[in-house]
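Dear colleague,

Thank you for sharing your sequence with our group. We've completed the structure prediction you requested, and as agreed, I am returning the results in plain text so they can be pasted directly into your records. Please verify that the sequence below matches your submission; if there's any discrepancy, let me know and we will rerun it promptly.
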Amino acid sequence: MNIEIWSLGKESDSFIEEGVDYYFKKTRPWNDVSLVVLQTPRKLATTDVQKQKLIEEEMILKRLQPGHYLVVLDERGKMLTSPQWAAQFQQCMNQGVKTLVLLIGGAFGVTEAVKKKANQTWSLSNLVFPHQLVRLILAEQVYRSFSILNNSPYHHE
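Please find the predicted structure tokens below.
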């Protein structure tokens, strides 16, 4: 199963990119994981929140394929522990999911159309984080999940 972290916004600052790459390399012996940054073209950027969300919706839905299992990250989503994340990943692998997509929505969230396409909606925290930091947190959590699944000593209960 491939895991793709999709994030709307700009490219990562170098310190974020280094951290994401660090966790991706640590995860690679067990599973492929990659980051896809979906940038809204500057000429389409707008101060109209609804219009911005629709532009982002189009980008997401255009990229979404039938073999994708979409998990939207949203502060109102289901809170999972690290072992529960690992169990969800295992369940996806058992079901033959080809690509698990973890979507970090835009600054104003995602549209109802995107939410309806989602297989699940998860929350990382009740706190709100900058998108770039969420990329790093997700990269670490994916690594932690696979370390749990593979009985690595990284995760302590």
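Summary note from our side: The CA atoms of residues 1 and 45 lie 34 Å apart.

Kind regards,
the structure core
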